[in-house]
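Thread: Biotin carboxyl carrier protein of acetyl-CoA carboxylase, structure

OP (GT): Posting the sequence first so everyone is looking at the same thing. Length is 164 residues per the record. Can we get the structure tokens written out before standup tomorrow? I want them in the notebook alongside the other entries.
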Amino acid sequence: MSKNTSEADVAFISALAELLNKNELTELSVKREYGEDDSLDVRVVKQATVVQMAPAPVVHAAPVAHAPAAAPAAAAAPVAHEDPAQHPGAVTSPMVGTCYLSPEPGASAFVTVGATVTEGQTVLIIEAMKTMNHIPAPKSGTVKRILVTDGHPVEYGAPLMIIE
């Protein structure tokens, strides 16, 4: 630590804190040399705020008698509990990155739901390490579902869309 604390050091530390927030960093370390045996070591750390939510209260409703005619209608409702990644037509992400559905901001999307695609056709882009990686359709078919949002991050192996 510096032998002499000054307003310049306080301003320097404040500037580091602003730099931390502005660039969305979590930690910053700097050593400022003033001369022989005189320096200022600064470590600015932003701690993540952990929000703990209380569990939702459990409400037990009184049993309600159902008419016999209501039971077949409830049984006819489709069950949508399937995992899109397990679908045989799933196009999965080959890398971690940011997903883009169009070639540039404001341009129309590469594909839309219901569009017919051919094998090898670009269906979206994943940006990884400042490189735009075109993701091709693994097979020809029709786009049934698009499972990602433009400009949002994707993980390796995450389902991107369904082509049947």
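GT: Both are above now. Quick notes for whoever picks this up: The domain at 86-163 is CATH 2.40.50.100 (OB fold (Dihydrolipoamide Acetyltransferase, E2P)). The CA atoms of residues 38 and 103 lie 54 Å apart.
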